[in-house]
């Protein structure tokens, strides 16, 4: 698979470098050595055994190609890893390597170790997005633009309130993820069938001590076929992806040539076409949406693997690994783009004003109709407001001026009242208050 060309560009390059094969081997080794340290501290291993293991194995080079080959016969990477590790130890230490553990303990704990810094990085990127969004909201809390429903012009809103909804979505998703960052991802240690066979009550003690030593959370019980921890991570990542995708979708629609209300941040080669020199494509939005769509697909794999049989999944557990790690790498990449997008978004108020006038004032037909209804009746008010808007559009005249000369309105309504009713800035409802309320909430987020 040409991953470097069609998969990796959607991911965080920093995260990708930190989650390669060597990193997984290092995480598995950390688990095994921590387990030995915990067992030695409680008298299950002879004094000095864990130190000697560490000295031997930290200097050892595990053969990744052989590990990959071993997965095909054993079903997971822990099996060939344990074999290579044992072979590298002196004879008197071999019996203490991987003592009381099972493959799932090694793989699940290693994945949690890989994910932990990724979740912290994702949280930091979300906070960066939050700060950029607050600045945009405050700068544009009175910038009036078209509000659109079913892809059509509806009524005026402000750009500030649009950004507020982007920020709200991202922050709500961040708060779903935050407990996993704060409480920590759980260690896995239960042995062959999840009951610490052969260790009796010491097993839970080992598990708790192992969690502390690795900087992971101590679960109530081993979770070999209780996949709630994986479900929680996957769905939290997917929620963030959905919020980022909403931002990218809106921005991409607003960048359309005929609308032109915002532009993505520029940069050398950003948005260029292979054949059309004039193009400035919303590439950051495309990368965000492409990553999000992949995350949504990965999430369905994990959701369908939640119920796992008996004491070890047969295929369900195995199916989780790639979607889980890839989702984190894709999301981190998407949020890197989202942060740059929000920090450098070019806003074009003049285009927003132009688009407000594109319908000849029809966007203000509702408030005009409300003004006229007490004077001419509801049906007539709707008809007059629509007729005037169409006349304004066809003749290129201001909506209020057409209304003033309409035979059924002339002399019945003060000119100032008509001008006020036809002015988009007077009909933005609670937009400004919503921005203020959202800014306060976001600033109190932590």
Can you describe what's shown?
This is Adenylosuccinate lyase family protein. Residues 360-439 form the Adenylosuccinate lyase C-terminal domain. The chain has 446 residues and is mainly alpha-helical. It folds into two domains: 3-141 and 159-353, Fumarase/aspartase (Central domain) (Fumarase C, Chain A, domain 2); 357-426, Fumarase/aspartase (C-terminal domain) (Ribonucleotide Reductase Protein R1, domain 1). The protein has helices at residues 3-6, 13-18, 21-41, 49-58, 64-74, 78-88, 91-94, 103-139, 159-183, 202-214, 228-254, 283-303, 316-344, 349-356, 365-376, 378-395, 399-405, 415-421, 431-443, and strands at 144-149, 152-158, 262-263, 346-347. A hairpin with a 2-residue loop joins strand 1 and strand 2. The longest helix is centred in the N-terminal third of the chain and has 37 residues, at 103-139. It is elongated, with a radius of gyration of 30 Å. The two termini are 42 Å apart.
Name of the CATH homologous superfamily of the largest domain: Fumarase/aspartase (Central domain)
CATH class descriptor name of the largest domain: Mainly Alpha
Please count the helical segments: 19
How does the helix and strand content classify structurally? mainly alpha
Q: Give the strand order of the largest sheet, numbering strands 1, 2, ... along the chain.
A: 1-2
Order of helices and strands: HHHHHHHHEEHHHEHHEHHHHHH
- Tally the structural domains: 2
Q: For the terminal residues, how far apart are their CA atoms?
A: 42 Å
Shape descriptor: elongated
Radius of gyration: 30 Å
What CATH calls the topology of the largest domain is: Fumarase C, Chain A, domain 2
CATH architecture of the largest domain: Up-down Bundle
Low-confidence parts lasting 5 or more residues at pLDDT below 50? none
What can be said about the biggest beta sheet?
2 strands, antiparallel
- Total number of strands: 4
Helix residue percentage: 55-70%
Q: What proportion strand? A: under 5%
Overall mean pLDDT stands at: 94
